[in-house]
Amino acid sequence: MTPLVLTGAILAAPVLLLTVLRVNAMMVFLSLCLGVVLVQFVGEEAASTVGIIASDGSTNPSLVSLFLLFAPAVFTTVFMIRTVHGKFKQLLNFLISIAVGSLVLLLAEPLLAAELQSSITATPVWDYMQKLQTLVVSLGAIFSLLFLWLQRPSHGHEEGKKHRHK
After folding, report:
1. Is the dihedral of CA 154, 141, 101, 29 positive or negative?
2. Which of left, alpha, beta for 2 (phi over 0: left; psi -120 to 50: alpha)?
3. Residue 92: half-sphere exposure toward Cβ, Cα within 13 Å
4. Among candidates 98, 107, 91, which has minimal Cα distance to 17?
5. Fewest beta carbons less than 10 Å away: which of 34, 76, 143, 161?
6. Residue 97 half-sphere exposure toward CB, CA atoms < 13 A
7. Longest dimension (CA), the chain
8. 3-state secondary structure of 113
9. What is the Cα–Cα distance from 122 to 11, expressed in whole angstroms?
């Protein structure tokens, strides 16, 4: 697989998956953020624990870090299938899923094998992603918060219904 196709696949797969399955991309975006926290604060100890448990005593810390990074997002994706309804929410969800795909590429690249890293970083897409990483994270966070705030139930309609029944 050519490096450009691989990079495009890493970017596009989450977008397509989240859009087609109508998965709440905001929750996946926040799950990726949780994954980063897990890698940062739990990664080394998890790798050494897996090494102790492994039969030969060796482990690949990058694989453990990739697992910690993506496990919350994968489980969130499974549990959040078909949770996005409405045209506006689907559009906003699509925008967030683009941020998720970009974040997947940006976060996974340093944890990949050296050969894979060098093939990804050699593409023009990687240079573009590096320049846009602040924008990707910022807009992903802003759109995620907006989507989160839209999930709030409208209490005005429920109160009106209660008063009518009395």
Report:
1. negative
2. beta
3. 20
4. 98
5. 161
6. 22
7. 71
8. coil
9. 16
Supply the pLDDT for residue 2: 87
Cβ atoms 38, 69 nearer than 8 A? yes
165 band by pLDDT with thresholds 50, 70 and 90: low
Half-sphere exposure of 32 (CA within 13 A, CB side): 23
106-137: per-residue pLDDT in tens? 999 999 989 999 999 999 999 999 999 999 99
Backbone phi, then psi, for 81, in 5-degree steps?
-60, 135
Does 57 have pLDDT greater than 70? no
- At residue 138, the pLDDT reads 95
pLDDT at 152: 76
